[in-house]
Structures are given as structure tokens and as C-alpha cells.
Amino acid sequence: MQNKPWFNHYPKEVPHSYNYPNQNLAQFLVDSAAQYPAHTALDFMGKKITYESLLKSVYRFANALLRLGIRKGDRIAVMLPNCPQGVIAYYGTLLTGAVAVMTNPLYVPREIEHQLTDAGVRLIVTMDALVERVNKAMEKHPLEYIIVTGMQDYLPFPKNMLYPIKAKKDGMSAVVQYNERVLAFKQFLKHSSEQPCHVEVDAGVDLALIQYTGGTTGVAKGVMLTHMNLISNTIQSQLWFYKARKAKEIYMAALPFFHVFGLTVLLNLAIYNAGTLLLLPRFEINQVLKMIDKMKPTIFPGAPTMYIALINHPEVSRYDLSSINICISGAAPLPVEVQEQFERISGGKLIEGYGLTEASPVTHANNFWELRKTGSIGIPFPDTEARIVNALTGEDLPLGEIGELIVRGPQVMKGYWNRPEETAASLRDGWLYTGDLARMDEDGFFFILDRRKDLIIAGGYNIYPREVEEVLFEHPDVEEAVVAGTVDPYRGETVKAYIVLKEGCLTTEAELKSWCKERLAVYKVPKVYEFRKALPKTLVGKVLRRKLIDEENERQAAEHKEKA
User: Fold this and answer.
1) Cβ of 563: how many Cβ atoms within 10 Å?
2) Distance CA 131, CA 61 (A)
3) What are the pLDDT digits (tens) for 253-280?
4) Is the C-alpha dihedral spanning 205, 211, 213, 219 positive or negative?
5) Is the N or C terminus of the chain more exposed, i.e. has fewer CB atoms within 10 Å?
6) What's the rounded Cα separation, in Å, for the pair 27 and 23?
7) What DSSP assignment string belongs to 413-457?
8) What is the pLDDT of residue 42?
9) Which helix (H) or strand (E) holds 34?
10) DSSP 8-state code for residue 378
11) Cα separation of the two ends of the chain
């Protein structure tokens, strides 16, 4: 395992190692603004903001925080969809040496309370429509300050005038009582200085971000990411996209910045590369297609569900998608069928990468222009090592065998916030134990079979949900599929498939079972099929397999109770 065969498949343009700068992560913005002051940094529904203008707003935000008494190491929550205010608050927080806590705007009060209390947040930046929810969540632990903005604050005319009317109609309008603790975002900036503000940080030690993991497997944990973790992963991503052109790329920002995938491969990477970000507050397929057709983005990172929605849109052929050169898919496995269809439609390259919050997040990716292998997550990034080990002993496994994937590199987290025992269990001798089952081939390409916790053991056989899902995705009538293990009194677990059919299709359970039997060993064929209109997902588009399993367990428990 130690000879790193993946280096044989590195493009000649990509170095094996790089000297990452020891600086504040926000220096990316300072440098791009110095080199390309008049270039558009953000395009928000037609409102264009240059690098120079963005940096001035960021300085104003940072100076306003300092005036409130925010200091290096303090935690600042940013609970916003993709919008200019979120970008300003994020980089402004970093310039003060404070730590950003990116928070999902869809969180319910219980989730908000856990995250903000656990992180010891002093101040939150959020939307007017969310203030009531934040106050309810933090009744027992009131925040020192709430900075409030509205979507209309950065919309162009006349959208800024029309938005409040639409919000009222949609039941999203809010009346906010401003006082010395609840402050308006625009006024907060207006009464502040745009003088440069730089608080010195030790990039390898000081935190830039506490990013909470999904919490789908229990209580969400705060992942501590340093300035260096995020700097190195941003630069690693840029080295991998070696054909990306400085100040020429247009990034389709549909992935949310409160997810670490969107934060690194969109926000940080675009700012580092002096690109233009087309900000989308949420992924809405018709809007996305129109935007690609009109605004000509060249880079479109996303989750598989985004590409699935795009290729299955009934009018996709009416839109010109040819501007898209590169897409990296993450957050969930990318079905081969989806990859091939998307590339046919757009003419661009769609590759699968791999990462996890604990690694800032990217550790592996397929080549864009050199050898790539379908079904593989590719090869490790520069300065990134990877091994397949016995999950219990930590010993290396022979080539081709399935074991736990462990990784090491400058992007790997410092640890979990206030959880030393869990940190010690996940980080051993600098190696991050991912919990994912994988194998490596002779070329150094890695293949993820599944999460250790998602492995289905039926009648003593190991079944990897991803393998079954790939077969279901190949069926012409299947739009989405997810496979999970459900309790079975005889086999221990049985394979259940949750299916979303393409519009107008009427495929039956018997037909799907027959399809699977031709392509899978009999013990892998799903025994139960449930047809649904939609699957439960996170905002980034990751299917919540755990939620489906919990629903099934509750249903079985209720049936058992009735029989009793």
C-alpha cells in the first residue's frame, strides 16, 4: 500500500506535493481583489458585486464585529442561504480571527439550539424570516447579538421591491423588533469602517470553521477545521482543475455554502481563482436550466440528485448546456448511468469525487482529462495518503480486498469540538478513519462499497447498497433509487428498495425484481420494493437512508404491536 501507485496516473500538470501558504483563509479574497478589483465576484439574481466592492463590505463587517467586542476564537454563526450577505459574513468573521459556524437555514429549533449551544456561539447572522425560530431555539441561552438581513437587501431593482410582496404571499414575511441586541445587517455595515482589518492567525492551529456533521447517525458533532485545512483543500482542488483559468471561470453556486462541499469547491475555490459565483439561494431545476442557458457557467459542482433532476427534465433539450466544462459530484455516490447521460447532454466532464466533513472535505477525485474509472471515486489528491485497513486492527489489507478507508493529509481536521474521546477514535497517528468500506485496485483507484453502518448482512452475506442501486439506476424507468437493510426474522436483514419512477412510467415490482435477478446474485436482489413520489433528502441532495430505515422500523413495530 505504501508505494502509492496512483502517482502513475497523475496528470503531468499536477504536482505530488505543494507548499501551502501559512495565512488567514480570507487572504484569498484580499489577493483576488488586489489583482482583479473590477472583476465580478458575485452575481445574485442579476445584482453584480465586484471584488473591490465585496472586499470593502467584508472589511466593514469585520470592523463592526470588532466594535461589538468579538475577538479571535469567538464563534459566529452564519445561518443563510447562498446570498451576498452570507459571503460577507463568512469572510468578515475570518478576518477578525473569529470562527465561522455555518448553520442550515432549514434547521428546526431543537437542531439550532444544539449547534449554537454546543459551539458557544456569541452572535448569529440570519434572515428576517428566521429570527423568531432562532429566538425560540435560544430561549434558555440567549445570544448576545442577532444580525438580521432580508433577501431583498441585495436584490437588484425591481426584484428588491417585489420580493417582500412575494414573501408575504408565501407566508415568509416577518416583522423584526430591532434594538441594541437585534441589529439590521445593512445598517451594521453602513456605520462601520472599510479600513483593512487583519487579525494574525497561525493557520495550522487556529480554527476557521466549526462544521457540524449531518447528525443523521445521532447528535451532530462539530468538526474543527483550521485555516490551513481549508486553504490546503482549496488549493488541492485548484491543482486538480489545472485547466481552470484565473478570473475567467463562472461557477454555478447551487450547492449551499453551509455544507462544507459547497464552501470549499464553490466559495473558497472561486474566490481563490478570482472567478464569478452565480448565487442560487436554493436548487430549483427550472431556474437552474434557465441560468445555465443564459449566464453560461463553466463549472458546476453538485450532488447526484442535481444531475438526476437535470437529465430527467422533460424540456432539457430546449436549453444550451454546452458552456459547462467541468462538474465534480460529491455528497453521495454518483450512478454511472447518470454520469454518462449528463456528459452526453452537456458535452462537459462530470467526475465523481469523495470526501467527508472531517477532511474539509475532498480527499479523492477522478481525473477530468486523463484516465478515469467508472464507479470509482478516483485517486488521492496531492499530499493525500490513503490506505485500506482492517477496521479492528488497523493493519493494511492485501490489494483488492475490502476494508476501511483511512486517509491522511493537510486537509484532515484538528478533531471534534469538545469531544476528545470521539476525536481519539477517529484520528489515530494522524490517520482519519472514515467509516467507509472500500477497495483499491492495482492502479491506485479507490472504490467505495458503502458506509460501514449501511452494510446489509442478510443470511450471513455482505450486501453493499451501492452495488444494488447501480443496477436499479440502469433501468430506463427508474429516476431515483435507494437501498436499505430492514429487519428480517429469518435472514437477520433483508434488502428493501425505495424507488422513484420517471414521470409517466408504470413499472411494477415484479418487473424490477426480474431486472435485478438478471444482474445480481440472488441474495442481493431486493425482496421488497416501495414506490414513492420523492425520497427524503438533506438540502445538499443527499438521500437520508437512515430516515427510511427508521420509518420502516416504526412501521414494523406498529404491525407487531397490532398482532400482539
Assistant:
1) 6
2) 20
3) 999 999 899 999 999 999 999 999 999 9
4) positive
5) C
6) 7
7) -SEETT-HHHHHHHEETTEEEEEEEEEE-TTS-EEEEEEGGG-EE
8) 98
9) helix 27-35
10) B
11) 54
H/E segment holding residue 154: none
Distance of CA 218 to the CA centre of its chain: 19
pTM above 0.90, yes or no: no
Contacts of 31 (CB under 8 A, 6+ apart): none
108 or 47, which is more confident: 47
Residue type, 357: T
DSSP structure class, residue 320: -
Could you tell me which residues come within 8 angstroms of residue 247 by beta carbon, excluding any fewer than 6 positions away? 32, 35, 36, 39, 273, 274, 275
Cell reading at 234: 482549496
Structural domains in the chain, sorted by start? 1-18+227-452 (3.40.50.12780), 23-201 (3.40.50.12780), 455-563 (3.30.300.30)
What are the phi and psi torsion angles at 181 (to 5°)? Answer: -105, -30
C-alpha cell at 217: 447517525
| Torsion on CA atoms 153, 154, 160, 164, rounded to nearest 10 | -40
The predicted pLDDT at position 546 comes to: 80
What's the confidence (pLDDT) of residue 243? 95
C-beta of residue 51 within 8 angstroms of C-beta of residue 293: no
pLDDT digits (tens, 9 = 90+) for 390-410: 988 889 999 999 999 999 999
Q: What is the pLDDT of residues 497-508, one digit of tens each?
A: 999 999 999 999
Alpha helix ranges (H) inside 104-144: 109-119, 131-137
Cα distance between residue 176 and residue 187, in whole Å: 14
CB proximity list for 271: less than 8 A, separation 6 or greater: 28, 29, 32, 41, 91, 277
pLDDT in tens, 516-550: 999 988 889 999 999 999 999 877 777 888 888 88
- Binned at pLDDT 50, 70 and 90, residue 564 comes out as low
Q: What does the alpha-carbon distance between residue 115 and residue 148 come to, in Å, rounded to a whole number? A: 19
Coil, strand, or helix at residue 369?
coil
Could you tell me which residues are beta bridge partners of residue 493?
487
